[in-house]
Structure formats: C-alpha cells, structure tokens
Amino acid sequence: MPDFSTRSSEKELLDDPSIPFEDIRQNMRELNIINTLLGGHAITKRGFRKILGTRREISICEIGCGGGDNLFVIHQWCSRAGVKAKLTGVDINAHCVEFAKDRYGPLGIEFICSDYKTSAVAPDIIFSSLFCHHFTNGELVLMLQWMQQHCKVGFFINDLHRHPLAWWSIKGLTKTFSRSYLVKNDAPLSVRRAFKKKEWQQLLQKTGIEADINWQWAFRHLILYKK
What we know:
Shape: globular
Helix content: 40-55%
Structural class: alpha/beta
C-alpha cells in the first residue's frame, strides 16, 4: 500500500515528451471515457456554470487541455444553452494539440501549442482539469497566481483527491479495462500525486487568493475563484 500522507513526487509517463503519438492517442481516448463515466466532465460543466452565471457571451481557456474533450463538453453545453463562447485550449505537448485540433478544431475551438506561462491569453474564464497534480507545490503556487492575474471573471480547477479508495478503484478499473500502458501507470499515480483539502487551503493561503474548495464525487475537488 502506498503512503497517502504526502504527495508522490514520481513523474507520470505522459510527462515524457518522447512518448509516441499513437500511444498518446489511445491515452486521450481512454481518459475521455474515464471522465465521462466517473463524472469528471460533469464537474467541469458545474464549475463553468457557476462562474458563467447569467452571462450569455464568454471567452474561456483551458490550460493543459490535453485532447480537448473538456472544451468539447463545454461547447456542447453552450450550444444547447444559447451561450456564445470563444473556446481556447493550451497545451505544451504538440501531440495532444494535434489530436485536439483534428477532433475539435472544425467546431471552432482554437488549440495552441505552448507553455501556459508564455501563452498570450487573457480570457474571461481560465480552467484546468487533471492538470495541477502534474506540478510541485511551488510550481502550483505560481500557476494559481498566473490564473488569477490572467482571467477577467474567474477561474476554476477540477482535480483529484488523494485517497486510498480512489487509488484502489482506478487501479482495478484500468488494470481490467484499459489497453493503454500510459493509463494503467498514470491513472493510479495521478491519485498519489493529488491533493487533500487542507493542502489546497495551504496553497491558496500562500497566494492570498480566496477561493471555494468543494469536494466532488468521485474523489475530486472543484476550486472556484471569482473576481
């Protein structure tokens, strides 16, 4: 049994830039299924709606967008709700951006291959999903400050809660159903790299940002900040 008292510092395989495109493609497909079945996309929509409020026109940017599935889910919701949305995804991995462009670029969603820190984005809403646990605590403090400085309306974060049951569950599910060695390795590891509520409170305290931290099923946290 791993030690869940502190975050793991072990790097995920997906953080290696030399991973072949076909392996990343399978990883992106399976992550979308996991987010759909385990409620990750529902949490993203919940965070977006809370910051959107009554606005009928909005610009939104996801940093660490991966395969673009989160933005597609928001695109679908906005289309049904009659909200005019300009959607942008930023990711440092060129393979992920290529995958996202092929699938969702024709819908008008823009994808940029860049480090989020050097991207020239200043949207109404910034968000990330399953992105923060890739970083050290120090790097995340800088990210939170960057998100606050570059959003016009607010930001939200959808990420994992470090817990033994979450680890056992995703380890069993991916071992049984996944065909991706990336998912089998990184999904359980991402839980070990994730945060507990007290840790989010400490990180936010270091930045001086006042944000709401809401626990979500299944084993997620939704962090909401409004200007």
